[in-house]
Design a protein that fits this description.
There is one protein chain. With 313 residues, this protein is an alpha+beta fold. The chain has helices at residues 108-118, 135-151, 160-187, 200-215, 222-228, 233-244, 248-266, 271-277, 283-294, 298-305, and strands at residues 22-29, 33-39, 44-49, 54-58, 61-65, 69-73, 79-83, 89-96, 122-123, 127-128, 192-193. A hairpin with a 2-residue loop joins β4 and β5 (61-65). α2 packs antiparallel against α3 (160-187), α5 (222-228) crosses α6 and α7 (248-266) crosses α10 (298-305).
Length: 313
């Protein structure tokens, strides 16, 4: 069996544009469960939680969040967010590639900060709490970035000249605020030099998740997944659940169901056809798993999410 390259599971959603790789997001949920699924990307991510009850998983570590805080995700780190309680929950995030802060001149900032970050020789702090002296200025800069993005950059439109004029100012606000964050972290000695850039365990999990996403339409056996990491099945299952929070087959079924939901919303395929298309060979098991996740049957879900024709409005 050929092992896939883990890079294929990287988040494929573009963050910003090629010339300005930056985007801001606000994620909200009203129920208990996964808020952001496991993924990774080459960009840096800064998360702000205003409070609430969350479990943030980064690589092999679990962080429990109950108060305002800022978290930093370094490039390539596997991460997910789970809402721990029923009710309104959410987090704000900015995602950017450090290339947007690269200097053409080889000044001190380029040589001793930007370049080490680009080459993964330097990492951001994991977390900043409100009592940390760096928190107020970093949070202020983060808020300025969110404001510039939501009120100006995300709404910039054509024609081309007008779009450039509208987007230039917010881009400068965003870049200057990012540099301000970098300055505060530097002043407070919060950047760390990496002694080790490669974690074989995390790369193994990435490879496993990639295999699942590439082969979810086929039969997937635990032994196949364990073989990828050269582990016995029992140890692999414990390792996978400790890292992802679900058993391998629970993850497989949830990934298949995600595609089933998309097909119910976007196609006219029958429920039976969707069952087979998504890798479920047992129709009864498909219905049970769908109801467990959505609390309704696939047919009920389709009826609920089918737009009403204009002629009937």
């Amino acid at each position: 069996m050929h092992s896939p390259q883990s890079s294929t599971l990287k988040e494929i959603r573009p963050h910003g544009t090629k010339s300005f790789p930056f985007a801001a997001y606000q994620t909200h949920s009203f129920g208990k469960g996964t808020l952001v699924k496991h993924h990774w990307h080459d960009e840096i991510e800064i998360l702000y939680f205003c409070g609430g009850d969350y479990q943030l998983k980064i690589n092999m570590e679990h962080f429990y969040i109950h108060s305002p805080c800022l978290y930093f995700i370094n490039p390539g780190e596997l991460h997910s967010i789970i809402s721990e309680k029923t009710g309104s929950a959410g987090e704000d995030a900015i995602v950017f590639h450090p290339e947007i802060l690269r200097f053409d001149t080889q000044d001190t900032a380029q040589l001793h900060l930007i370049q080490p970050i680009l080459s993964h020789r330097m990492s951001f702090p994991r977390c900043i709490l409100p009592e940390d002296p760096a928190f107020p200025p970093v949070y202020q800069a983060f808020s300025s970035i969110m404001h510039a993005y939501s009120t100006r950059l995300s709404s910039s439109s054509s024609p081309e000249d007008d779009r450039i004029a509208r987007s230039l100012a917010p881009q400068l606000y965003i870049k200057s605020s990012l540099l301000w964050i970098f300055a505060v972290l530097t002043e407070n000695n919060l950047f760390t030099l990496n002694e080790k850039n490669y974690d074989r365990r995390i790369e193994g999990i990435k490879t496993t998740l990639t295999y699942i996403q590439e082969h979810y339409k086929e039969k997937i056996y635990i032994r196949d997944l364990a073989e990828i990491l050269n582990m016995n099945e029992q140890y692999f299952c414990r390792f996978f659940k400790k890292t992802i929070g679900r058993s391998p087959m629970e993850y497989v079924n949830e990934y298949r169901l995600k595609h089933a939901v998309r097909l119910l919303e976007e196609t006219d395929l029958s429920v039976t056809e969707i069952c087979l298309e998504c890798g479920f060979n047992n129709f009864g098991n498909f219905i049970r798993e769908f109801r467990r996740l959505q609390n309704i049957t696939p047919l009920q879900y389709r009826k609920r999410h089918t737009p009403v024709p204009d002629s009937l409005v």
